[in-house]
Design a protein that fits this description.
Blueprint: E1 7-11, E2 16-20, H1 23-65, H2 71-97, H3 105-143, H4 148-188
Antiparallel strand pairs: 1-2
Helix pairs in contact: 1-2, 1-3, 2-3, 3-4
Length: 189
């Protein structure tokens, strides 16, 4: 149910149509939006942690098993592991802070906005995290003496990933904006 879906009632005294918000339905709507935001955020965080850890371990292991290891590949692995560690620590902090919101409609709405804002921050971080990873992989491919076009293809792929991730980032921003508009409407009523 959206905020604009209101129930008409007939006011008998002055025979005017009035609109009333169904508070319990609105609260259920806010709780559903909060659950959805938390679910998406949990998946995003866990995927970031798992993918970065496995990729870093794989890259570092393969790099050290070769006779001529590449310092840039080692740096990529270290960078990705540090990224996973950072996201894991931020996740722990976020989960510990989830208890600061009360169980009212206002508390649930504030919590949903907080989760959406955090999702935007993580999305922004991961979006720009592609840049150092791409540059380090570009340097690693150039250091290995591979074809210049392979290195340019790697770099191009990462710039396309940054561009496409803007679409995902904007989705999170629009969801947070919807929640903030709802909060403003409730504050004005």
């Amino acid at each position: 149910m959206e905020f604009d879906e209101l129930t008409k009632i007939w006011h008998l005294q002055n025979k005017e149509t009035m609109y009333v918000i169904d508070a319990s339905a609105l609260h259920r709507c806010i709780q559903a939006k909060k659950r959805q935001a938390k679910s998406i955020l949990n998946i995003s965080e866990l995927l970031n942690i798992i993918v970065n850890i496995f990729a870093s371990v794989f890259i570092i292991t393969i790099n050290f098993l070769k006779d001529n290891s590449n310092i840039f590949l080692t740096l990529v692995g270290i960078w990705m592991f540090c990224t996973a560690l950072y996201v894991a620590l931020k996740r722990i902090g976020r989960l510990n802070g989830d208890n600061q919101f009360d169980q009212s409609m206002r508390g649930d709405l504030d919590h949903a906005i907080s989760v959406a804002t955090y999702q935007i921050k993580i999305s922004h971080l991961m979006r720009w995290n592609v840049l150092p990873v791409g540059l380090l992989l570009f340097a690693a491919s150039m250091n290995k003496g591979q074809s210049f076009w392979i290195a340019v293809s790697i770099l191009s792929f990462f710039f396309i990933a940054i561009y496409v991730s803007r679409w995902e980032h904007n989705i999170y921003k629009s969801k947070r904006n919807e929640l903030e508009v709802l909060r403003k409407k409730l504050e004005n009523k």
